[in-house]
Design a protein that fits this description.
- The chain is an all-alpha fold.
- The protein has 2 domains: 1-36; 40-74, no CATH class.
- The protein has 4 helices and no strands.
- The chain is extended, with a radius of gyration of 17 Å.
């Protein structure tokens, strides 16, 4: 099996297993995964570039903006948390 096909298969398996985890467990794994990328991944220049790209997507109409209420409605809150 080619490496890319194996990677897609592994990713699909991991994604399926993640759905069985609690929100807290998925959040903990997300933090661990992001931390594993290293400091260079999220430096100020990379974050500024990402913000510029997202702004361009909004300005071009490629994506629709969300209201604050829509954004909050799309978040999963930990038990007992309030916004």
């Amino acid at each position: 099996m080619a490496a890319s096909a194996l990677c897609r298969r592994a990713t699909a398996t991991i994604s399926a297993l993640l759905r069985d985890l609690s929100t807290h467990e998925r959040a903990s794994l997300a933090v661990e995964l992001l931390d594993s990328l290293g400091d260079e991944t999220w430096n100020d220049d990379a974050l500024a570039k990402l913000a510029d790209e997202r702004d361009a997507e909004l300005e071009s109409g490629a994506v629709a903006p969300l209201s604050h209420a829509q954004f909050l409605a799309g978040l999963e809150r930990p038990s007992g948390a309030a916004w």
